[in-house]
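dude i think i finally got it to work??
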Amino acid sequence: MLKSIRFRATLIALICIVALFFLTPTLIQELPDFWKQKLPKDKIRLGLDLQGGMHLVLEVDTMKAIESMMERLSGNLKETLMAQKIRFRNIERAAEQTISLELTNPAERGNFEKVLQDYFPDLVFASSSSMTDGREKISLQLKKSRADEIKKMSVEQSLETIRNRIDQFGISEPEIIPQGDDRIVIQLPGVTDANRAKNLIGKTALLEFKLLDEDHSLEEALRGNVPDGSFIAYGAGGRRAGAAPYLLKSKTLLSGDALESAKVQIGDRFGTPHVSMKFNAQGARDFERITGENVGKRLAIVLDGNVYSAPVIKQRIAGGQAVIEGSFDMEEARDLAIVLRAGALPAPVNILEERTVGPSLGQDSIRSGIWSCLVSGFLIIVFMAFYYRLSGLIADLALVLNIALLLGFMVMIGATLTLPGIAGIILTVGMAVDANILICERIREELRVGKTPRAAVEAGYTKAFLTIFDSNTTSLLVALFLFGFGTGPVKGFAVTLTVGILTSMFTAVYVTRVVYDYILWNHKITKLSI
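look at this
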């Protein structure tokens, strides 16, 4: 029996040492150098409500993703019909999911249908009507299944892109989860610069390379006479900021999809930061071909519809390198590089809800939570010691150990402590004490019928265990469901409740039993203080 007690006591000691090992960085502010270099230094991670930060609810404009798809299909259809020598007029995107055009020769309807079948399976006929001069007006619509797929993919891609941006921004423990069909919930603990975070998350970052239309007059275009196949764009900052206008060709020669990397560099001449871009293998070949075919022309670098620079192509550029220059400061250049590396959002996102929690409010929450734990813990410790005497002190030891193990293992698994999580800790304290009360009452019953202390303890634990196990198992299942289906604060509560149930079962049943066995076998007592 003594060997069994020593083995169990050693196991308990090892588990406690592991928990305290991970809890040390939280308890000790200034760690020795050797600890910082070689040992875990993570502290208890605090959630948004305790640390302060931002809470955002974003809505992905999925209809814009469909509009962009229809715009591309319209351009591709135009080029394909010209290549197949099918005569048409006035091809344009008529509505969000509709393309309209006129077939000048109705006899080519069969060839037109074959083009749709072979090259554009996502488009179906919406309507068709004959015109007075013999032409046929046709409306094409995007399949509903394809439209739903684009909406779903745009939300998923937005989620991944935003997650990549935030990871590169350096925010620890962000929470980024989908909500409904087109919304994304973001929690950013510790963020103090709200505007910078919103700009980083919400920037579409659509990078395009387009040629300037130097065959037509910019002045005429500004008067409203914009030539077909061209449009007016403005420099960084947009029209409202008084940026210079540019007349650009609509065709995109190269897009941000071809980027491999983007980083901030300092210019040699004036020491101003710029963003250096490197294309992937295919992008480098395309960029070399584009620059070789357009020597002497101006190539505009367009980001989110604004022209950042429009240099003259002096020669064929090999190597797949390009530069975005502008009146950046270092922080703006770094954020631009982040969004380019993370990729463009497939659709714009709108901020529906924004909440900012200040650090002072978080500190108040922590202070209130700690006081509530201390007061409730103190009252329970006093009650147990007064009502159950020595057995109550054993239960108090298990209670203190339970809290230490809970916090230590939360650090070990990287869980985040939230305000509802503190409520989960307090609930765990109550559940742990409840288990010890059941055990103590069972032992009392056995002592009343005349059993010896050893027999009473054995019977008390045996009879109380099933009740304790059943109640904790049901609570654990509820906690797991809350974690699986809950969001934000609910998950924080579920995490601490789950870990707390496991540690309370260990301390209330296993640790206290070892203490009882040690006292009864080592000291051979004949009367149990309970």
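The chain has three domains: 2-52+359-523, 63-147, 203-355.
im so relieved honestly
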